[in-house]
Write a structure and sequence with these properties.
The complex is a heterodimer of chains A (about 475) and B (about 650).
Chain A (H helix, E strand, L loop, with lengths): L2 H6 L1 H19 L7 H18 L5 E3 L4 E3 L1 H25 L8 H20 L3 H19 L6 H32 L4 H7 L4 H18 L6 H9 L2 H25 L5 H24 L4 H22 L2 H32 L10 H4 L1 H15 L5 H15 L3 H26 L14 H19 L1 H10 L4
Antiparallel strand pairs in A: 1-2
Helix pairs in contact in A: 2-3, 2-5, 3-4, 4-5, 4-11, 4-14, 4-19, 5-6, 5-11, 6-7, 6-11, 7-9, 7-10, 9-11, 10-11, 10-13, 11-13, 11-14, 12-13, 12-18, 13-14, 13-17, 13-18, 14-16, 14-17, 14-19, 14-20, 16-18, 16-19, 17-19
Chain B lengths: L8 H16 L5 H28 L11 E10 L5 E8 L1 H24 L6 H20 L3 H19 L6 H32 L4 H4 L13 E3 L2 E2 H16 L8 H4 L5 H10 L4 H8 L1 H7 L1 H22 L5 H21 L9 H31 L15 H14 L6 H16 L1 H26 L15 H16 L5 H4 L13 H22 L5 H8 L1 H8 L4 H46 L8 H24 L1
Antiparallel strand pairs in B: 1-2, 3-4
Helix pairs in contact in B: 1-2, 1-4, 2-3, 2-4, 3-4, 3-10, 3-15, 3-19, 4-5, 5-6, 6-8, 8-11, 8-13, 10-15, 12-13, 13-14, 13-18, 14-15, 14-17, 14-18, 15-16, 15-17, 15-19, 16-18, 16-19, 17-18, 17-21, 18-21, 22-23
The chains are: A mainly alpha (about 475), B mainly alpha (about 650).
């Protein structure tokens, strides 16, 4: 290994170094000064993010185990940006006294999972993919159980680790079948030898179930309800935005590069799963009264939309998936940011509590409205373009009925997103949430989201760039 | 090749200042926001002048013709490889000319409003909207493709709506702004249909490939399609409907008089000099397509323009509100411009009408803005719009008086002032092309001179009215733009337009044809003299004439009842016989279906809550069994 190969995997290396620094910092500061870790970790991660954006060199390492092209580089940068926003939003929460002694844990865990996701994205072999997946999942369970004295947080952790273990087992079974039938775990070799033989089809379905678990596609989504509900808000937002986005990136790359010879099989599969996910996700989200659960459930439906881009199986399809996730990170984190600010300042998180919010907290309400508009896909904010391109991708391949169903579902989602807007702006409230002074890191985070919601929609260069690095089948 | 990429700054500067004033305007002193906006526009104006200089005098011509230059272009939305919406800057003689018009008038209005709007509530808001309008208008004139033009076209409509309704506490202003928006929006529907047909036929939005006379686009869709006209002609007629809406051509003119509810500087900027000529600009922009593949479309343009100009001139003779007189005069003058392009053909001397129309657009912008700003100064002094409240004002408002007189002489076509040249070229073009239109336009020229001098004498001479407060001359911020525009109105006619702005980019030999010019001078002077006799002093001649042509007079005074006809059609016919049944259907069939669906969705959503039991072993069971089921299904379907 020489210096250039170091530079090639700088995302992972810098992140590892940062994780180690946070570990050392944890050991070297005494209990009263633990809060210093917050600024150390956040600043370091900010530097990591900036380093990530430096010009990329494409290359392959470890005998094709590790691949880094502009595509992977972009995906990692998108995730870094999202995680940075999550970190900023978590500052106020971590500063609470009950979290005082476990601040560093949060950072170490979140960095480890991100490292896992980045390895997954860059993997060139199923082995690497699996290692990344485990690294991304196991610390996640610890994160879910972060408020371990709250019974539902502990429950969330246990449920996540149990379900994840099972899904990993299924995924691993799939991978071993793949290895058994093709004699290799390397993507390029597998791609050449993959056919629609029964065992290979089964292997693919098993592998896909494992991935669907991560993205929480129906019917592999059942774990999400309890985990999202039990985890602290910021962990939920991390789970439902970053982790889901990363898995979507990986799914689209693997389907397009490894399983492109059996697109015949996975297209109808995606069709079924997309319809199920959009519909069931919406039906769940509709009835939620708790804002955190509401956002988390609506994110299931959003995952269904992503499949429309995948099913397009074209350059536009992959572009639209990456673009949608990028937009989705800003929109959903914007909404989660507002919910978390309000929760940690007033301990209120029900939709009824939001009645009349506009009259006491106009700025927060406007941000929330923007974010929800973007999630619902109302022009001219970025979310509209995100959905528009996904639908275009599916329609181009002739899936008009699927697009029709998706449009119906988008309408249903509009209904419940607007319920929140109505609560904030129209409903009257005797005792509205008092004026909240947002802490500045959260302000920065929200600002990034708002800029993102507008800029990604209006500045076409981003879409053009993603098109230039994407590929179809 | 000169690099023109800096021209992208010209529209971006106003939008930047719009954001600054719009977001922080309420925190600063009003005058600061006004100065900021004016500064921004000055920069844009200087850049525009520089661009014009570079373009006309420092750029290589090919075969002696000015070329279309794509100064800046970026793909905005990519539908397919062929069909994409771009955003960019297109420079050619007409867009560069419009740059000058828009930035000059806008700058004058910015300066003027510093005095006129002083102390108004919402001063900063006013300047923010002015900047927004300037941005939209500049984006419109610089558009590289018809889709970009459509987007900015709508933005112009929105900013016009905001500015007409600036005094939003006044019900009449609110309804005027709604009326303007709805009528123009209705016309834009035609524009949109036109765009869709046009781009469907030609496969492109882009102006350069659309108007390339040797290209494929221009030749497509020429077969007879419907009612004896080709598809291309139909699409261009639809496009013209959009243009007619914005340019207040008959019968879509009804919004323009009401739009005078906006602040007077706004009327000067939007409803006299810039936005209302967008329709003419649109036709000029697509002129090669009109001239080569749809000459029938141009005939429609010419007749609509000619009729509108006559119609508006007749009404203008009877109105008492000075701003409305000017509004109808605007409509009439735009009719002239439409006639100009309508009677023109592509290339060489045939393109005289095109050149004349652009020339008239330019001079009209100067003298009409001057008239409106002058009217603003008068209203500012007298606190009334109605000419019966005025009279003898020449003693109190010397600067306004002189500049207003210059503008009136110009519009009347008095020799050697700017409009004499431009109007004369239009008449010449009409003379060679269509004698009927020529005589109508000649008559309108006389009417124009008459009603303008009726206005002039009623305001500045006639009886000495007693005023509550002695009217006083406008402050310097208001009189400087007046003087500047007066100079422009006198000398703009000496710009060699025939060398610069022509249909094919080649210079054109234009000279005054006395066979046309002499009758037009005579008619103009006749109009002035009649007005002199009737209105110089208070006489009873107007009443006598009014009563002897009672029917015509009452009709014209009531604008030929067009507002009433529109109201009758919409309220009595459309609302009763179309909207009501549709509303019933909507309420009882559509809504009921939707409610039913919503009810089912809710019920299902309630049921499936049971799936979420909270037990991990059940989750595992569902997970594994789904995987197995899917496996069996897909192996059965695809592998065996």
């Amino acid at each position: 290994m020489n210096l250039e190969s170091f530079l090639l995997m700088r995302h992972e290396l810098v992140l590892t170094i940062i994780t180690l620094i946070v570990l050392v910092a944890e050991l070297s500061v005494n209990d009263d000064n633990k809060r210093k870790v917050i600024s150390i970790a956040t600043v370091l991660f900010g530097i990591n993010m900036v380093i990530g954006f430096l010009p990329n060199m494409a290359g392959i390492l470890f005998g094709k185990m590790y691949i880094n092209t502009d595509l992977q580089w972009t995906m990692k940068n998108i995730l870094n940006l999202g995680v940075f926003v999550v970190l900023l939003q978590s500052v106020a929460w971590l500063k609470e006294t009950e979290n005082k002694i476990k601040i560093s844990e949060f950072y170490i865990l979140i960095f480890s999972t991100l490292l896992g996701m980045q390895f997954m994205i860059s993997s060139g072999s199923f082995l690497m993919l699996y290692l990344g997946l485990e690294l991304a999942t196991i610390p996640m369970a610890a994160l879910a159980a972060y408020d371990r004295y709250r019974s539902n947080s502990a429950e969330a952790g246990v449920k996540l680790i149990l379900s994840a273990a099972m899904s990993s087992a299924v995924l691993l079974l799939g991978i071993s079948f793949i290895y058994g039938t093709t004699g290799s775990t390397y993507f390029d070799v597998v791609a050449l030898k993959y056919t629609t033989a029964p065992l290979q089809t089964l292997a693919f379905i098993l592998f896909f179930s494992g991935m669907a678990f991560k993205i929480s596609l129906v019917p592999f989504h059942l774990w999400t309800a309890d985990v999202y509900e039990g985890s602290p808000i910021n962990v939920t937002s991390y789970l439902s935005v970053i982790s889901k986005g990363a898995s979507a990136f990986i799914l689209v790359t693997v389907l397009f590069t490894v399983f492109n010879s059996i697109a015949l099989i996975w297209k109808p599969l995606m069709y079924i799963i997309a319809v199920l996910t959009m519909t069931v996700g919406n039906l769940f989200a509709m009835r939620q009264q708790n804002m955190k659960r509401f956002l988390a459930f609506s994110s299931i439906a959003q995952a269904g939309f992503i499949l429309l881009g995948i099913i397009g199986a074209s350059n536009i399809g992959m572009t639209s998936v990456i673009y949608f996730v990028f937009v989705y990170i800003f929109s959903n984190l914007g909404a989660f940011g507002v919910v978390s600010v309000i929760y940690y300042k007033s301990r209120k998180e029900n939709m009824d509590d939001y009645n009349g919010l506009y009259f006491t907290n106009p700025k927060l309400s406007l941000v929330m409205m923007l974010a929800l508009f973007s999630l619902a896909g109302i022009p001219p904010v970025a979310g509209f373009f995100g959905k528009f391109f996904l639908f275009t991708a599916a329609a181009e391949s002739g899936y008009y009925w699927l697009v029709f169903i998706a449009v119906l579902n988008a309408t249903i989602s509009l209904y419940y997103y607007l319920l929140v807007v109505k609560a904030m702006f129209i409903n009257k409230n005797e005792t509205p949430i008092a004026y909240i002074k947002t802490d500045w890191p959260a302000k920065v985070a929200i600002l990034i989201c708002v800029i993102g919601i507008f800029a990604v929609g209006f500045y076409s260069g981003i879409y053009q760039y993603i098109t230039s690095i994407s590929f179809g089948i | 090749m000169t690099d023109f990429s800096y021209t992208i700054l010209i529209p971006l500067i106003p939008i930047f200042f719009f954001l600054i004033i719009g977001l922080t305007g309420h925190k600063m002193k009003p005058i600061i926001s006004g100065l900021i906006g004016t500064t921004g526009l000055s920069i844009a104006a200087i850049l525009s002048y520089f661009t014009a200089y570079q373009y006309f005098f420092n750029t290589e011509k090919i075969d002696g013709a000015y070329q279309k230059i794509l100064a800046f272009n970026t793909v905005w939305i990519n539908f397919t490889d062929k069909l994409h919406v771009d955003m960019g800057v297109l420079l050619d003689p007409i867009s560069v000319m419009m740059l000058i018009v828009v930035t000059t008038i806008s700058l004058m209005v910015h300066i003027y409003s510093l005095g006129y709007m002083k102390g108004e509530k919402g001063f900063a808001r006013f300047y923010a909207f002015l900047s927004l309008f300037s941005f939209s208008m500049l984006g419109l004139v610089l558009a590289t493709n018809i889709f970009q033009m459509y987007i900015f076209w709508e933005l112009v409509g929105v900013s016009s709506f905001l500015l007409i309704g600036f005094y939003y506490e006044k019900p009449s202003a609110v309804s005027a702004s709604k009326k303007a928006f709805i009528v123009t929006r209705f016309a834009d529907l035609g524009f949109l249909i036109g765009i869709l047909i046009l781009s469907f036929n030609t496969g492109t939005f882009d102006f350069i490939s659309l108007t390339d006379i040797h290209g494929t686009a221009i030749a497509s869709g020429s077969g007879i399609a419907f009612m004896g006209l080709s598809t291309m002609t139909w699409s261009l007629i639809f496009v013209f409907i959009g243009g007619a809406g914005k340019s207040a051509m008959f019968p879509l003119h009804i919004w323009l008089p009401d739009a005078m509810e906006g602040p007077t500087p706004v009327s000067a900027l939007i409803h006299a000099a810039t936005m209302v000529v967008a329709g003419v600009y649109l036709v000029a922009r697509l002129f090669p397509v009109y001239a080569i593949s749809a000459p029938d479309g141009l005939t429609v343009v010419a007749y609509v323009g000619s009729f509108s100009s006559l119609f508006a001139a007749v009404i203008a003779c009877t109105q008492y509100d000075i701003k409305r007189v000017l509004a109808f005069s605007t409509m009439s003058q735009i009719g002239y411009m439409m006639v100009g392009v309508g009677v023109s053909r592509y290339g060489g001397h045939e393109g005289l009408g095109f050149m004349a129309s652009m020339f008239h657009l330019f001079t009209h912008a100067m003298f009409k803005a001057l008239l409106f700003l002058g009217a603003g100064a008068i209203i500012h002094a007298v606190h009334s719009n109605v000419m019966t409240d005025m009279g003898g004002l020449r003693k109190y408002l010397p600067i306004t008086h002189i500049t207003f007189l210059i503008a009136c002489l110009t519009i009347a076509g008095v020799p050697f002032l700017s409009a004499f040249f431009s109007k004369d070229e239009i008449l010449t073009a009409a003379f060679h092309h269509n004698k009927l239109i020529f005589f109508v336009q000649l008559f309108v020229a006389g009417l124009t001179a008459f009603y303008m001098f009726r206005l002039y004498f009623r305001i500045f001479w006639n009886r000495d009215t007693h005023y509550h407060h002695t009217p006083h001359e406008a402050p310097l911020t208001m009189s400087i733009p007046l003087m500047f525009l007066a100079v422009a109105s006198i000398f703009a006619g000496y710009i060699p337009f025939s060398k610069l702005v022509t249909s094919d980019g080649l210079p054109l030999e234009a000279h005054i044809e006395w066979i046309v010019a002499i009758p037009s001078i005579i008619v103009g002077l006749l109009g002035i003299s009649i007005a002199f006799v009737m209105y110089k002093k208070e006489t009873t001649i107007p009443q006598k004439i009014g009563s002897s042509f009672k029917l015509l007079y009452v009709g014209a005074f009531n604008k030929f009842y067009f507002d009433e006809i529109y109201l009758f059609v919409t309220k009595k016919i459309i609302f009763n016989y179309i909207s009501r049944p549709v509303a019933w259907f909507d309420r009882h069939v559509v809504d009921a279906t939707m409610d039913g669906i919503a009810w089912i969705t809710n019920a299902v959503s309630f049921r499936i809550k049971g799936l979420q039991s909270g037990q991990v072993q059940q989750y595992a069971f569902v997970f594994v069994s789904s995987a197995i089921l899917l496996g069996i299904l897909f192996i059965y379907l695809f592998s065996i």
